[in-house]
Design brief:
The complex is a heterodimer of chains A (378) and B (369). Chain A is 47% helix and 17% strand. By secondary structure, chain A is an alpha/beta fold. Chain A has a 6-stranded parallel sheet, sandwiched between helices. In chain A, strand 8, helix 10 and strand 9 form a beta-alpha-beta unit. In chain A, helix 1 packs antiparallel against helix 2 and helix 7 packs antiparallel against helix 13. Chain B is an all-alpha fold. Chain B has a domain of 243 residues: ABC transporter involved in vitamin B12 uptake, BtuC (Orthogonal Bundle). In chain B, strands 1-2 form a two-stranded antiparallel ribbon. In chain B, helix 3 packs across helix 11. The longest helix of chain B has 30 residues. Classes of the chains: A alpha/beta (378), B mainly alpha (369). The interface between A and B is large, with 41 and 36 residues.
Chain lengths: 378, 369
């Protein structure tokens, strides 16, 4: 960080000096300023890829001027209407790509989409530079990724959260077994409940992943604690993911009826449930909530006090694994089911007994190696 | 007395000051937007500079990627097309003294209307194209008319109603796209693709929607200056009391102008659906209506000037992602530049400063001769 500031400061000073010293000679001014800026640009990129460059032992590619050369490996990433620091899917996918790029000494660059009409053009910029692997984030980009992959058989595409109906050898959709993440969360809830009543407030059951989360959760609770009573409610399809008021009202209802752990899943609706639980005076003491998809301790700070964990899709590991597979020549094509599990406990670390943690870890391991079934019919 | 007339909001384009001489209007019409854009680029340049990138390099990349090849031209025209329409929508409102903040809502309501008309019916192209376009316009006009009627007959500020109608429009189209109009057997909230008979073609690198936008702009350039109705619009905008005294029905003019404004925003949404997106999908229409406000003020409520203003915004929006690809500058810098442009156009201090300098120069040259 200090290095970055220092570099930026020096670059600024150099530019200012360059500008002052030759104000009467515009030609020199421009060239010297440009040269300085090019240097500044490189250092900025270097700072951005700090992890990458410092960890990697092999010769590092510093730019994408020659991605076609076999010794230069280039990885591009296009976000889905979001920033690479959105604390959500885009960030997780970017971190995964960073991890992989660092391991193989690849050059990594990203472009953040601001308009869905630009998806193709943004992918196209990486294609034009002959990038070796292009990561596209989010199911909204599924069509653009498939079109680009069909047009460019020499480039591997990683579609994060994009289910592939048809199989292309150079396009792999990173998908997740939501029922397993839900099951693990439910298992934890089943072990943790004091009142033997747990709840879940979810987006619509007409969207399959939401249904799998919900039913996996229900089965997980029952497996851990057959005496527990599970209440799972789904929003109606319209506004299913943008109704925090409904989420909050349902969460409140469940707590009033005695539930002490509520699983909230479904965009803003689920977040509304989490935030409502966190408002309870008993939040984090005897009433808890469980988030979804990614570690929601980061994305919904208002819910930190009650957040036991999140039923997490391991996007960082999944993305990184696919970029590495693309590099190794073992790119699977079709769909790749990434690992799921639970996010760190954070503030509720001390509230969860060690034996519960161990038992839940065992369940997650069982789900991953296939020795344990969630019982959810897909 | 003036309780049912539009509020006299001075937006800086209808204040000819006789003391500054006859050339004032002309100079002001060109100088202020150009100076505002340059100032915005200068401030934007400083921001880029502090991110460690040469602003000249950044702007070169921005413009080269948008205007460097035929693909760039096509995308600039595609992006400018709905912006010309929403810019015009705001312009027509401004002429009557109404600030239509609701172009976004009118546009999305029309976009889904045109999508429905485009996929639900199976008609020959000769009928289908005008029908889908017209139905979209009708949706936009109807949506804007709610604000127009409330303004004319209940004196409810159109600024407030159009902003609120934007939120209602978002909820409405989300509902329609996720329930009755949803494409079956897939998880996304979106309508099916429109039939080929309702699709606006692209000729080479020229989208036909762009041509329609140019024609409509020219039409309104003529309409607002050369027709009786246009005269009524301008008169009501300049002074509703005088307009009433002259026998113009202020209420009727307000309702009509809002409907026309909504139809224009609606045309933008319909053309976007029929020419670029091919279906309604909520995220595809984000921000088009709000850029229209910037464009209308930059064009100083002149329908013809809307064209270059919209193209400028189109270029910036097209080049934004290449800017990030080449230099690492985040694409949002374009939003900053547009916001600064709006600020400088709207801030009277800029124009005052320019004309004070102008006046000084004039008095100097007079002194010499």
């Amino acid at each position: 960080m200090h290095r970055k500031l220092l570099v930026a400061g020096l670059a600024v000073a150099a530019l200012v000096l360059a500008g002052c010293s030759s104000s009467d000679d515009t030609a020199t001014d421009t060239t010297s300023a440009e040269a300085t800026t090019e240097a500044a640009e490189e250092t900025t990129e270097e700072a951005a890829e700090e992890e990458v460059t410092e960890e990697s032992a092999p010769a590092v590619t510093m730019d994408d001027s020659n991605c076609a050369a076999p010794e230069n490996y280039c990885v591009g990433l296009v976000t889905d209407l979001g920033k690479v620091d959105d604390k959500s899917f885009n960030q997780a996918a970017f971190e995964g790509a960073q991890l992989a790029a660092g391991e193989i000494g690849a050059f990594l660059k990203y472009v953040e989409s601001t308009d869905p009409k630009d998806y193709m053009a943004n992918i196209g910029q990486f294609v034009a530079k002959e990038y070796d692997t292009i990561v596209t984030v989010g199911f909204l980009m599924a069509e653009a990724s498939a079109a680009a992959a069909a047009e460019n058989p020499n480039i591997n595409f990683v579609g994060v959260d994009q289910f592939q109906g048809e199989t292309l050898p150079n396009l792999t959709g990173l998908i997740f077994a939501e029922d397993q993440a839900g099951y693990a969360a439910g298992y934890l809830a089943g072990l943790m409940t004091e009142t033997n009543k747990v709840g879940a407030v979810l987006g619509t059951d007409t969207v399959p992943p939401v249904l799998y989360f919900g039913e996996g959760y229900r089965n997980g609770v029952m497996a851990a604690n057959p005496e527990a009573e599970v209440t799972v409610v789904y929003h109606e399809p319209a506004n299913a993911f943008t109704d925090p008021e409904w989420g909050a009202a349902e969460a409140k209802k469940q707590v009033t009826q005695g539930a002490d752990i509520v699983f909230g899943a479904g965009g803003g609706t689920g977040n509304g449930a989490l935030i409502e639980i966190a408002k309870s005076p008993e939040s984090g003491k005897s009433v808890f909530c469980i988030g979804v998809d990614i570690d929601q301790y980061n994305t919904v700070p208002q819910a930190q006090s009650c957040l036991l964990t999140s039923a997490e899709k391991k996007l960082v590991a999944g993305t990184s694994a696919l970029v590495l597979a693309s590099f190794d020549g073992t790119f699977p094509g079709g769909n790749f089911v990434g690992a799921t599990g639970l996010a760190p406990y954070h503030d509720t670390e001390d509230a969860v007994p060690a034996e519960v943690k161990t038992e839940v870890e065992g369940v997650i391991a069982g789900l991953l190696d296939g020795s344990l079934e969630t019982g959810v019919v897909k | 007395m003036s309780s049912d007339g539009p509020a006299q909001t001075d937006l800086g384009f209808t204040d000819p000051n006789p003391t500054l001489g006859p050339k004032y209007g002309v100079v002001k019409a060109f100088a202020i937007p150009i100076v505002s854009v340059l100032l915005a680029f200068a401030v934007g340049g400083i921001l880029i500079y502090f991110q460690g990138v040469n602003p000249f390099t950044a702007y070169r990349v921005l413009f080269e990627s948008a205007l460097g090849d035929s693909d760039g031209y096509l995308r600039v025209m595609q992006k400018s097309t709905p912006l010309i329409f929403t810019g015009l929508a705001v312009v027509v409102g401004l002429r009557v003294g109404l600030f239509n903040i609701g172009a976004q809502g009118q546009l999305i309501v029309a976009a889904i209307g045109a999508a429905w008309a485009g996929y639900h019916f199976d008609l020959p192209a000769v009928v289908h194209l005008p029908f889908a376009l017209g139905f979209g316009m009708l949706c936009g006009a109807a949506w804007a008319s709610i604000a127009g009627v409330l303004r004319a007959y209940r004196n409810v500020s159109e600024v407030i109603t159009t902003i609120m109608l934007n939120s209602i429009a978002i909820a409405l189209v989300d509902y329609l796209a996720s329930r009755p109009f949803k494409e079956p057997d897939q998880p996304l909230s979106r309508t099916p693709l429109i039939s080929d008979s309702a699709a606006l073609a692209t000729f080479g690198v020229i989208p036909s929607g762009f041509v329609i936008a140019l024609i409509v702009s020219l039409f309104f350039g003529w309409f607002l200056i050369r027709t009786t109705e246009g005269f009524r619009f301008n008169t009501v905008g300049l002074n509703p009391n005088a307009a009433r005294y002259a026998g113009i029905s202020v209420k009727r003019t307000i309702v009509l102008a809002m409907a026309v404004s909504g139809a224009l925003a609606g045309m933008g949404g319909a053309v976007e659906t029929m020419g670029v997106v091919g279906r309604f999908e909520p995220a595809f229409n984000a921000g088009l209506g709000f850029d229209g406000i910037t464009i209308a003020l930059l064009a100083r409520a002149n329908p013809i000037a809307t064209i270059p203003a919209a193209i400028l915004v189109g270029i910036l929006r097209t080049g934004a992602n290449s800017l990030q690809f080449e230099t690492g500058i985040e694409p949002e810098v374009v939003d900053v530049i547009l916001a600064l442009t709006l600020l400088f156009v709207a801030a009277p201090i800029v124009s005052r400063y320019i004309f004070r300098i102008n006046a000084k120069r004039k008095s100097k040259s007079k002194g010499r001769s």
